[in-house]
Every structure is written in C-alpha cells, then in structure tokens.
Amino acid sequence: MNGFHKIHKFILFEITNNCNLSCPYCYIQKEERTIDFEIVKKIYLLNPYFNILSFFGGEPFLYPEYMLEIIKLFKKAKHFTFGVVTNGSLLTKKDILYWIGKGISTWKISIHRNSEIWLLEFFEDLKRRLKEKIDVRFVKFFQTIYDFEKSEWIREMKKYKYIQFSAVFPFQKNSFSFFYKPSKKCLIKHVNTKCNFNIYVDIDGFVYPCLKIHSQKYKCYGNIKEDFEKIDFACKVFSNVIKKCEIAQLEKNRGITICELFLS
Fold this sequence. Notes:
Layout lengths: L9 E5 L22 H8 L7 E5 L7 H11 L6 E6 L6 H9 L2 E7 L6 H14 L4 E7 L3 H6 L2 H5 L6 E5 L7 E6 L4 E6 L7 E3 L4 E3 L13 E2 L4 H21 L11 H4 L1
Parallel strand pairs: 1-2, 1-9, 2-3, 3-4, 4-5, 5-6
Antiparallel strand pairs: 6-7, 7-8, 9-10, 10-11
C-alpha cells in the first residue's frame, strides 16, 4: 500500500442535496436532507484505500455540525485530510480559518459574482503563507468557449500567484476544462481531466468510480449499504489501474488526459 498512498485518493460524497443558491448549470435536485450517518459509517470502512474525504453537495456548509461529526469519525483513521466543494457564500474569514484548523486543506470554490473577490484575495494570502499545507482552486462555469474567451476572467486570474483556477463548460457535450496553474503561468486544456482515484458516493449511498459518470447508472458499483463487499473489492482492483494511469498522465498527451472509463 505504500506506493499507492503516493496518489491522492478522494472519497467525494454528497453530504446534502440542499443548497442556498440555484445555479443554472447545477444538476442537483434540491431537497432539505443530508446523507444518512449509517452510509457515512460504511464509507469509513473503505478508509485503507483513501486519504482525502471531500464534502460535496448541494452546499456542505449548510450543515456545519454534521460536517464536524463526520470529520471526527474519519480522524480515527489518522491518515485522513479533508476537502470541500463549496460556493463560498456562507463563509467568513473566521470560518475559513476555523475549518482549516479542523483539517479541511483542499478547497474547491465556485465563482458566481464579483462580491467573491475578497475570497480570492483571502485565499491568495493564505496560500502564500501556508504554501503546501492547503490546496485551493476556484472554478468558474461558462456556457461556451466563446463566452470564456471574451470574458475578462483569463486576465483576472493571472493576477494571482498562488491559487489555481479552472474554467468549466457543463453545457458542452464533451467533458473538458481549462486549468490555470500560476507556477506554470500557462493555460492547459484538460479532456476528461486527470483521475486521482476518486470514488463518488451520492446521498442515497450509490457508489460510482468517478463523479463524471454518476449519470451512467450501469457503471455504478452498487449501494454501499447492500453491496459493501463488491465495492470494497472494486476499490482494491481500481487502485492498480489508477497507478498505471498516473505514470502516463500529462506527459504522453501534452497536457491532455483522456479517461478510458469515462469514454467506454
């Protein structure tokens, strides 16, 4: 397992499908409910294969107390750090520092309006000071590449030296994004993007090998409450596939990575 642990391995799970915003590109059907804790305990049993638990929604920060309860459980495994996918609208500077203190080191924040400039500047300063202790990426959604190219966003994001950015096109038939990494000072196109061995668990406990294919029901591993042994075995097998994928990632394809699982 030592070699395997060199790869970031995410459990991305849907803590809620409730949200305080109504973004036009979001596929989540909003309901005021959270994932059952019995499902969370089953997810915890997969901890030997993963090292990052990432909260997904909906908007996770609608349920901060439940997030703390889940973090407390997963900290028993010692090797876990935590991530969150959020719209950032419920956060203050004090909140961000609090959650970093609780172990959330991977932040993916969607950008919706100009009022979020303070978030960019605050995380830029945090990343400058904490460096490798946190990973921060801001995401902005565009309907078309034309909308992206005519926007000021490309120029704006180059002002920042530490935080990363992605431009995503949810309405396009093919899955791709543009990724800006300050250290490289360049824009890279990703097709279906690099796989870091994510599994995605939806609010009902159905497990998929990737968030991108959650709509392809025939690729579902099963429900973690009923098919745990099957899912556990799949995680063992898939880990070897991802190790091979990591070696070829980016180099052979000049920055463009294609996921065979997604295309199959």
